[in-house]
Records
---
Amino acid sequence: MQMPWLLILLCTALLACANGYQAKAQTGLAYELVGQASHCVGGHAAETVQLFQSQDAWLASAARQRLNPRLRNEPWREAYLRVLVYGPQQRTGGFSLQLEKVELIPGSPDRVRVIVRSLAPSEHSFTTQMISQPCLLVDVPAAGVSPDVKPVLVSH
């Protein structure tokens, strides 16, 4: 007699998990990692995220910050937002950023959360002895995103 109750409990738990996953998936945004570099001259001591809604704003900022030419020259895509994430400045090379997710913050349609992981070189790896600053460049479709959007960076 206990088998039907156990089956009902199991089905209810699976359904609850599936609904929770569906709600999380709806906040995620499609994105394309356009490029990344281990040395970006942004002059930012701490991690920083910037969002650009027009090609003119992107080009002006990239030139002003002396951004890595490989990233600066990436072609602009119409109907997309461009997100530039800087990691903190480091005393050696070998550091990088790994993009994990770009999502709308539930309840805040004018906020986009960019989640990155900072990666350090292994303890015994050879690294360049120069100041470096990893960065990555992401294009996000503008559809469904508020025109007054502000980026929020979360790193771990």
Note: The mean pLDDT is 81.
---
Amino acid sequence: MFEGPGSSTRRALPVLTISTLLAACCVVIGGVLGCGGYDGYSMGLAKEGEVSTLTTATQVTDVTGNDAVDPEPLLLAADGSLYFFDAVSRSVVNLATDGTATLFTSQTDLTTVTAMTPALLGPLDQIGAGGALADELICADSISGLIIRIDSAGTPVVHVTEADITAVTGETGAAMRLPRSLTHDGMELDAVMAQDTVSGDILKIDDLGVVTVLVDQNDIATESGLPVEDAVVAEWTRGPDSGSHFGRLDGSNHVIRVQIDGTIDRHVDGTALVDLFSDITDLRLLGVAAHSDDTLFLLVGEVTMGAGIAEVSPDGSEVSVFADSKDFEFLLGASFDVVHIGVFGDGLPYAIDGVSDQVLAFSIFGKPGVFASQEEIETVTGETAPVLSVSTIRGALDEIAFFETKSESFLTVIEID
């Protein structure tokens, strides 16, 4: 039930069909009688998946020239391929839709443009469609503090100089973090935003390379509830419908929203999360993911261990429990740690459990089921007790790509009927 602006509640149940009700009853009865509980949701309330190899470690190391692979967060590009920065070779690698690996930007190229050895790139983003720089990659180099832009041929350039930044901020240096495309619906073509951790401001670099302050550091501190010196965004997710960016800051349970014009507000007040998940001691906001209509899913937990998921309506007025610790415990037992969440195209989230190292999907009721089991992953990789890492939705609406660290291979899990 909708309870007005700022309300928080247990997630309201959706409209039920007869078949869904029957399936739900079967699952409940099965759980009570010990006939399988939630696992797999064979009654059709949650997705079940099939695991396969997308790209092997050898396919990647053959193009990087190194003997290991360690990917940073995966970027799903507009063409359906995946990009990632490999922390071992210090290069950018592309995985085509068929899994073929290509060295997109070498360590030598990055070192040349940053004048730093070696470059260490953060999460990648892709400039939105419509402008001259459409589909080019952007990222920040944490060694030099510069924003790097990479064109379609894999050639990197410095997107904006330190001198251009300090001329606006008045600081003696700059260290840019988490650059993101501002382009949305034909607005702000080729514009990029990023936070300068020296000044604390979120800056905008327009299509002509002109730097301006998009959000002042004091406003970030106010909306995040943190001191100015600690108000640093740890993670962004873009709202596909509005083009707004929703930010999570370490040390704060609030979610900030930055609109395209730089308007900032507190989209989610962290006290609502504490109230909703009263069973979690020392609650922390650990992750944020967005659906296409700007609905958010928030991963919360105790210190660093993920234990619940909240759902936030597109306008931020309704915050509710999507899945709590009891839901995960019923499926996984007492030991679990939700380490990552994402959102399928149909609006339901997925999650990775870092204890059992399985991929989880959810029913419309917020009950988790195993989407990619440990046993299936072991069979595909040949590794016992696999360890899962970075992941993203890939291509089809119900397909996930993820990295398994022991085999150093990229896997996919796709929904099966």
Note: Residues 195 and 202 are 4 Å apart (CA to CA).
